[in-house]
Amino acid sequence: MSADESSDEEAVDDVTRRLDDALERVAHGAAVSVPSILLQRGLTVVFTAALTNGLGAAPYGLFALARRIQRFLARIVLGFRNGLSRFLPTAEQEERDALATFASLLLLGVATVFGVGLFLAAPRITSMADQTAQFELLVRVFALGMPASVWLFTVTEVLRGIEAVAPLNLTMRLVYPAAQLVVGVVGAFVVGDIAFVAGGVLAVMGLTGVAAAVWIVRARGFRPRLRGPGLPALRRRYLEYTVPLFLGGIATTTQRLGFYPLIAVFLSGVAGGVFAVGVLVSQLVRLPLMAINQFIPPVAAALNEEGHDDALSRLYHVTSRLVLVGVVAAAVPVVVYRETVMAAFGPTFTEYAPLLTLFVLAQIAACAAGSVGILLRMTDHQQALLVTNVAITTVLAIVAIPLTVEFGLAGVVWTYLLMLTLNNGIEVAVLYHLEGLQPFTKRHSYPLVAALPFGAIALVARTLAPGVVGALTGTVVGLAAFAATLKLLGFTPVERRLASTLVNRYGELLPGR
């Protein structure tokens, strides 16, 4: 064997080794996160159902609109947290202390300013939306709780940056949603006051964030650090990275949450509640991407920082394909049994069940390209991401109002579908242009082929046994057909190695082992 051939084989082995290591780290985070994300989503669905059934569609609609207006501003503020996942994985302990301290103070400071502004603007917002005094009260409650909500997500970003899998999932997937559910049940069925629910939710967010911060300090040795050699340069680097993300966050947040101010001005509280429930239910389809994304930021950042481009490219191919498999499997039963799903929230929501199909299609469009936005950030193309999102937001601002005025809530949902499709399609093109990374191979069509027998079985089950029994039967049998079709189409060696690794690591947790 020549020296060149030996060198080529070593390079291939190195890429394979790094790919397997990266996939195992991402898959470990996903495997641990899937049950907890399911639990979180389930608790959130039950929380929402408690409010819609206990207090009615209209009060819940006002709560949803006020909360999303606050979340609109909070998401913009949280643009400053993205540097934590980018820099913490490769930083020394002293740098980690300084980054966490600086980011926390920055985020809390900006959150306080935004919260005060929202509190003062509450009467004007209520007047523009032609809403009641109860809506103004809810907006002010959420404005006062802005720092608490931002603090929770800042602390969890630190947990993600240091790859603390179990504490992250315990905090965000169990403690917070469980406490929120308790507040919702008490507020809906005991106190009977939606404002009590709003205040209680914010209180548990703040307390959960404090508890998680205490764990970080005690278990990982983090200490507040404001002074020291090299810290001004570190802070400048952090700001240079995050300021474009903060500015771009205005555009992306407008894309994600700008629908709620639009609904508040042109439609009704009930429409706001229906839209919020549609997004909540359809995001159950997004579970595979959420699971993969738990720890792909630090893994991708490390591969990019160390110059392992081939491994990063193959990581993107495999993870995006796995995400699409999971998303399609989750989407089919939600679309087929949409009336049964929406009935859980009350008769008002059942009337809008046909719109759930559009919400689900929007989530498929959002997930089909995998972690494209994260990869743009982790490869240091936050400025390109800013330009992309500003352009998309401009287009949506032009089309959203006419569609809403002409078609009402359906127009808003069509705009939502358009937004997610444009966003992810253009980001894929930008990432490919800048880094040569793109997610798609011919194997991305396999989940779509496997969805055909799944959908047929689900439709037959719905016809033969309408309701929950038919939905459960059709879903279980359909998933078996889906898996069998994928097996027939075949898996790659990388996917088989990953499956073997996961079975060896978590096999004892499976039934019968």
Q: Strands, helices and their partners?
A:
Elements lengths: L2 H53 L1 H21 L4 H6 L5 H37 L3 H12 L1 H16 L3 H27 L2 H27 L10 H27 L1 H8 L2 H14 L4 H7 L2 H10 L3 H28 L1 H6 L3 H4 L4 H13 L4 H7 L3 H26 L1 H27 L10 H19 L3 H22 L3 H14 L7
Helix pairs in contact: 1-2, 1-7, 1-12, 1-14, 1-23, 2-4, 2-5, 2-9, 2-10, 2-11, 4-5, 4-6, 4-9, 5-8, 6-8, 7-8, 9-19, 10-19, 11-17, 12-14, 14-17, 14-21, 14-22, 17-20, 18-20, 19-20, 21-22
What does this structure look like?
With 513 residues, this protein is mostly helical. Helix content is 84%, strand content 0%. It contains 23 helices and no strands. Helix 21 runs antiparallel to helix 22. The longest helix has 53 residues. The radius of gyration is 23 Å and the shape is globular.
TL;DR of this structure?
The protein has 513 residues and is mostly helical.
Strand content: under 5%
The largest pleated sheet is described as: none
What class, by secondary structure content? Answer: mainly alpha
Count every helix, treating DSSP H or I runs of 4 or more residues as helices.
23
Radius of gyration using CA atoms only? 23 Å
Which tags fit this structure?
513 residues, mainly alpha, disordered N terminus
